[in-house]
Specification:
It is built from no helices and 17 strands. By secondary structure, the protein is mainly β.
Length: 180
């Protein structure tokens, strides 16, 4: 069971409760909730009115859903693909992005214009959301990226399993500095 509370004058009040949730992601503003059920279905919720947005969709895989910085889009990893959902209507944008290997990590640029996806072989690909599912130049890591973080539209940090950190330009795939 997932329970959300809200704080009113220093008192916590139960706001919303969902049964059968295996993982969930709350948007930065706290207005949207993406909840994945034990059956693998994803439901997008408007937290303020406690109503679902759109119809549930499949979301089997890991990592959990990730909101774009502007909260307009939601990336949902499925074992070997990634879907992008419009948070206004809960509908998938275009076709899922297929992957030859298990999707290990996803990250949005601050504006939501770029989506980076890494697979289990350590290959990171960057997509322009306006061109989904067209693939931009692939960014290849020496080992699997454990974490990714966009600092800007021009800088993507990649922390790899071998302990190195790379800073790359997501538009070109070029290293901006020597790996750390």
């Amino acid at each position: 069971t997932l329970t959300l509370f809200r704080l009113i004058e220093n008192t916590a009040e139960q706001w919303m409760s969902l049964d059968g949730v295996s993982r969930a992601t709350l948007s930065d503003s706290g207005k949207l909730l993406a909840a994945v059920g034990m059956d693998g279905s994803l439901t997008l919720w408007n937290v303020e009115d406690r109503e679902p947005i759109g119809e549930p969709s499949p979301a089997k895989g890991n990592p959990g859903p990730v909101f774009s910085g502007d909260e307009r889009l939601l990336a949902v990893a499925h074992f070997r693909s990634v879907s992008v959902i419009d948070t206004l209507n809960g509908k998938k944008l275009g076709e899922s992005i297929p992957y030859p290997d298990f999707v290990s990590n996803v990250a949005w640029s601050p504006t939501g214009r770029l989506l980076a996806v890494c697979d289990g072989q350590g290959v990171c690909r960057v997509y322009r959301t306006s061109e989904l599912p067209t693939e931009n130049e692939a960014i290849t890591c020496d080992s699997q990226a454990q974490q990714m973080l966009f600092v800007s539209e021009e800088k993507l940090f990649l922390a790899t399993m071998d302990g190195s950190v790379r800073v790359v330009n997501p538009n070109t795939g070029e290293d901006l500095f020597d790996p750390i």
